Amino acid sequence: MRLQKRTAKKDTIVLIDSAYLSKVAKHLGNGKYLRYNIHTLAINLAKSFNLWCKEIYYYTAPPFQSSNPTLEEAERKSKYDKFIKKIQTYLPTTWVREGRCQLINGVFKQKGVDNLLTQDLIKISQRREVECIIFITADTDFVPILKGIKADYGMKIILAYYTDRQRKSSFSMSNHLWQVCDEKVLLNKDHFFMGGQGVSNEKKL
C-alpha cells in the first residue's frame, strides 16, 4: 500500500482513549459502530494540522473474563486479541496500553488506563521527540497532567473531541479541558475514512 508522502511536516503522536472513541464512533454511526481504521483516523487528524503522525498510543482493556469464562466471554476475547494483533501490524507504529476490565455492581469498568496514559504523557514529553500531541478524549482527569507537560516541556496539546452541543449530555465538554488545550478539532465521519482529510494509506510492518 502507499505511504503518506514525506514532507517537511513536523511529527506528532496521537493518543487515543478507546472507550471514548468507541462512544463517538457509535454515535456518528447512528447507533451502529462505524467500521474504521485507527491508523487512517490518526493520519487524517495529523494532516488536518499539517503534521505527520509518528506514533499512535491506544489505551484500552481486554474484555472481562470470569474465573471460568463463558463461551461468549471467550469469543469476545478471541476477537479482541485478533484486533489488537492487527492494529500492531500497520504503520504508524501503534503502542497498545492495556488496563483491566472489572465487573462492579453489574457494570463493566476499565481500571488502570488513566495511570498508563498519564505515565506515557510524561515519558513522551521528556523524550522531546515531538512538540505537540493529538489527544482523543473528553476526560477532565487529565487536565492537571496536561497543564504540567505544557508548563515543564512546552508541549502543545491538540484536542480531538465530539460534542452534540447539548448541556449535560454524554458528550458535554468541560471548560477546564477545553481551556488547557491549545487547539481543538471536532471529530466527524470524514476523519474516520480515507479521503476525508486527504487520502491516507497504511503499510504493513
Strand content: 15-25%
What's the number of structural domains? 1
Taken in chain order, the helices and strands follow as EHHEHEEEHEHEHEH
Give the uncertain stretches in residue-range form.
Answer: 197-205
Radius of gyration: 17 Å
Structural class assignment: alpha/beta
Overall geometric form? globular
How would you summarize the topology of this molecule?
Blueprint: E1 10-17, H1 18-28, H2 38-47, E2 51-60, H3 71-87, E3 93-98, E4 100-104, E5 107-111, H4 113-127, E6 132-136, H5 143-153, E7 156-161, H6 175-180, E8 183-186, H7 189-192
Parallel strand pairs: 1-2, 1-6, 2-3, 6-7, 7-8
Antiparallel strand pairs: 4-5
Helix pairs in contact: 4-5
Q: Would you write up a description of this structure?
A:
With 205 residues, this protein is of the alpha/beta class. It has one domain: 5'-nuclease (Rossmann fold, 3-Layer(aba) Sandwich). It is built from 7 helices and 8 strands; from the N terminus they run E-H-H-E-H-E-E-E-H-E-H-E-H-E-H. It has helices spanning 18-28, 38-47, 71-87, 113-127, 143-153, 175-180, 189-192; strands spanning 10-17, 51-60, 93-98, 100-104, 107-111, 132-136, 156-161, 183-186. Strands 3-2-1-6-7-8 form a 6-stranded parallel beta sheet. It has a two-stranded antiparallel ribbon with strand order 4-5. Strand 7 (156-161), helix 6 and strand 8 (183-186) form a beta-alpha-beta unit. The radius of gyration is 17 Å and the shape is globular.
